[in-house]
Predict the 3D structure of the following.
Amino acid sequence: MKASTAIGIGAAFGALLLSSMMDGTSPTSFINIPALIIIIGGTFGVTLASTGIDVMKRVPSLYKLVISADPPDVRGRLDQLVGLADQARREGLLALDAQLPEVEDPFTRNALQLVVDGTDPEMVHTILEAEVDGMAARHAVGASPFEKAGGFAPTMGIIGTVLGLVHVLQNLAAPSTLGPSISAAFIATLMGVGSANVIFLPIANRLKAISAEEVELRMMTVEGILSIQAGDNPRLVSEKLMSYVPPGERSEEDEQSVAPLGIESKAA
């Protein structure tokens, strides 16, 4: 589901709010502007100092990616590679040159171009693997602001609480204000820990999951391209790549074709 991250974050906030209301706490008790300034401004500042402005500029687009990312079409890529393998086996690798404009994915298109150009298989594997590694490294950089914010936010919350308690200790002459002041002081810790565990870290983990899915899809593509270049039978290519397809996307025929392999691997 595309909106699973947004739904999960919303459910977490809802559970926290409902729990506090059941205990008799008013939602307005959590509105504390100084604490918000410390958590939002302080966390943003130290995260910016840690990652740099270029990385922070990507944060809005990464938020959008997490909320609206489509799952990778693994089965569609497999069918495409099997179709290309069938054409290459019947008409030769040079026949794939006419198919290049119809390949939407840039990585797959570049890989096919290497094959059509007659590049050595080992060199093809090296080039494509390096491109996958580079993509994974870029994705790790993209997730780093959220990881760092998840680590800094609780600390900023503690700093906010300490500042609030300093204010409380300066006003011990007014006992009637101690309860609300102490409560307000701890709101900063609540905001820091809450934002880290409900927003920043879940988004970082989701970005890592999206990256892992893309890496898996590209590794399947590399495997398929090398099989095409080797002239493997299309059925063999399909069976070889089927391990990358999630069980929920496999047909009954697919399950039957991979079941013997699973039994053999377990027996081994």
